[in-house]
Design goal:
Blueprint lengths: L2 E2 L5 E2 L14 E4 L9 E2 L5 E9 L4 E2 L2 E2 L4 E4 L3 H4 L9 E4 L1 E2 L8 E3 L13 E4 L8 H8 L2 H10 L1 E3 L2 E3 L2 H5 L2 E4 L2 H45 L8 E2 L17 E2 L3 E4 H4 E4 L16 E5 L4 E2 L2 E2 L5 E4 L2 H7 L6 E4 L1 E2 L18 E2 L3 E6 L6 H8 L3 H8 L1 E2 L4 E2 L2 H4 L3 E4 L4 H43 L14 H36 L35
Parallel strand pairs: 20-26
Antiparallel strand pairs: 1-2, 3-15, 4-12, 5-8, 6-7, 9-11, 9-12, 10-14, 13-14, 16-17, 18-30, 19-27, 20-23, 21-22, 24-27, 25-29, 28-29
Length: 534
């Protein structure tokens, strides 16, 4: 019998019973409703003069974006079996994130011929049997996601789903007419939800942008309403590009990071040490722990290091951690250590800046590094094939604002910055909560609709069982036609082959007549009489 999921949807029973389903519905596997077998795309290399092929980024929540394509090294004839058409449903075969593998999108329109690559699986159904919009909504439902993620296989950090696993996905199939009604209802409701989510995300982006300005203002002393701001120069340094620096409040000055902080790199993982039980095992921070203006300590790894390394790199309260490598726009991100974990060190892809002689408050420095200094890190980093990085020698040359030396005055700048930024944090959190509520509502709508509880049933509709019988009958008829076509093609080929043999020339003499009609025993040879003339 069917099973009720934790989110209210119907789970596939793994059998053939229809208990728990609305009248006229039936449990099916995706393979039961296909108009043709699922197909993997073809692997192609980029070619500026080739044929258009979709990128994986073309799979959007609202459909396939055909403008997201590259040119592949195949001809139009080679690409023909892989051309997409409206009504096709494309599924991603692999992704580094389990939550994204098997994500699908509906082809709603195609303005120019474009093919799909080997990173996708094409699903085709007949619109007379299955509403493509219904299939698209179904595929994003929680019940289908759970099946896809469960069937995914992981190798070399990539989660993959196969054609066979996709065809085995089970779900409750309503009559075709009801599919249309469900798709119409979900299109209307989810379009309103899409607008709400779009506005929340836009508000969140604007708030983060404004928060970034407020962070810079707090780090340079100009956040106070009566601050007297001014442009102040800094002496150039060889090998770095400072660009335009922000305004500073009166009494502030510019200097280089190396002048106010001790900057060091972290530990490199030595595989030999990891097998030495005599060495202490201590927690250490990685790039993933250093986020923008915060530390994520939900997962902290451990490493074995010599005692002298622990003594040298042990983090202290107030140390600022900054990333050395990663995406270019993430260079230098990080935050302040507050003794959250005892005897913690950091890896070599993080820099640690320890402020000397209370030259500035750690939060003032941290705010600046995570706001205005972002462009400086991007300009001074170097790019390899996949990753960007920045050297410790350049990081030491980072221009940093220095407040007046009075500790009480510095504390006032920090208090004002915390108060203003806390307001932004509350607004950003409200947007995040709204987005979370919208996502939960989306899941509930999909579960209710695809369980038959969103709309009333119409008993006069053709049942799903009858629809399946019709699909099977049409498949059998199509297979008979295909076999007949193959036989006809084979016969035509044979006729062409026979007809292509050249006839014997008219003046060719006939073969000699046999000298005797008597068959000779096997192994004996007939002899001809020889005549000699004198």
């Amino acid at each position: 019998m069917s099973v009720e999921s934790s989110e209210g949807g119907l789970e596939a029973p793994g059998g053939t019973e229809s208990a728990g389903l609305p009248e006229g519905w039936a449990w099916v596997k995706l393979a039961d409703i296909l108009s043709e077998p699922t197909t993997n795309g073809r692997s192609v290399r980029s070619d500026d003069d080739g044929f258009p092929v979709l990128r994986l980024t073309a799979l959007k929540r609202d459909g396939v974006d055909c403008s997201e394509h590259k040119l592949g090294d195949w001809t139009a004839e080679e690409a023909a079996p892989y051309l997409i058409q409206p009504g096709d449903f494309l599924v991603s075969r692999g992704n580094g994130s389990l939550s994204l593998v098997g994500r699908g999108a509906l082809v709603t329109s195609v303005t120019e011929p474009v093919a799909f690559p080997d990173t996708m699986i094409r699903i085709r159904t007949s619109p007379d049997h299955v509403d493509p919009r219904f299939l698209a909504h179904l595929w994003s439902s929680p019940a289908i996601r759970r099946q896809v993620e469960k069937s995914a296989r992981t190798g070399t950090g990539i989660h993959k789903v196969s054609q066979a696993a996709v065809q085995e996905v089970e779900f409750a199939l309503p009559p075709t007419a009801e599919q249309h009604r469900i798709a119409d209802a979900l299109d209307a409701r989810l379009s309103h939800l899409d607008k709400i989510e779009s506005r929340l995300m836009a508000a969140q982006r604007r708030l983060n942008h404004l928060r970034n300005f407020a962070m810079t203002a707090a780090a340079t002393g100009v956040l106070a309403w009566d601050a007297d701001s001014q442009h102040l120069p800094i002496a150039g340094a060889p090998g770095v590009k400072d660009g335009t620096l922000p305004l500073l409040a009166s009494g502030w000055r510019w200097t280089r990071l190396q002048d106010i902080a001790d900057v060091v790199g972290g530990v490199s993982k030595d595989s030999k040490n990891q097998h030495d039980p005599a060495l202490p095992e201590v927690p250490y921070l990685r790039v993933a722990n250093a986020q923008r203006a915060r530390l994520d300590l939900s997962q902290v790894s451990k490493i074995r290091v010599p005692p002298k390394t622990l003594a040298k790199l042990r983090l202290r309260d107030g140390d600022l951690l900054m990333t050395e490598g990663g995406d270019r726009d993430k260079l230098g991100r990080g935050w302040i250590w507050a003794d959250e974990i005892e005897d913690c060190i950091h890896q070599n892809h993080l820099f640690r800046a320890r402020i000397l002689d209370q030259a500035t408050h750690p939060k003032l420095l941290g705010w600046y590094v995570n706001s205005a200094a972002r462009s400086w890190f991007e300009d001074n980093g170097k790019q390899s094939v996949n990753l960007a990085s920045i050297s410790i020698s350049k990081v030491k040359m980072l221009p940093v604002p220095v407040p007046p030396p009075d500790e009480a005055e510095q504390a006032g700048f920090v208090e004002l910055g915390e108060r203003v930024l806390a307001r932004f944090d509350r607004l950003v959190s409200a947007c995040e909560k709204g987005l979370g509520n919208a996502a939960a509502l989306r899941r509930t709508l999909l579960s209710e609709a695809l369980s038959g509880r969103l709309l009333p049933q119409d008993p006069d509709n053709e049942s799903a069982e009858d629809l399946l019988k019709r699909i099977r009958a049409e498949r059998e008829a199509a297979e008979v036609e295909r076999k007949a076509a193959r036989r006809a093609a084979a016969q035509a080929k044979r006729k062409r082959h026979v007809g292509s043999k050249a006839p014997a020339p008219a003046d060719t003499p006939p073969p000699p007549a046999p000298t005797s009609d008597t068959l000779l025993p096997e192994g004996e040879q007939d002899t001809l009489p020889l005549e000699f003339t004198a």
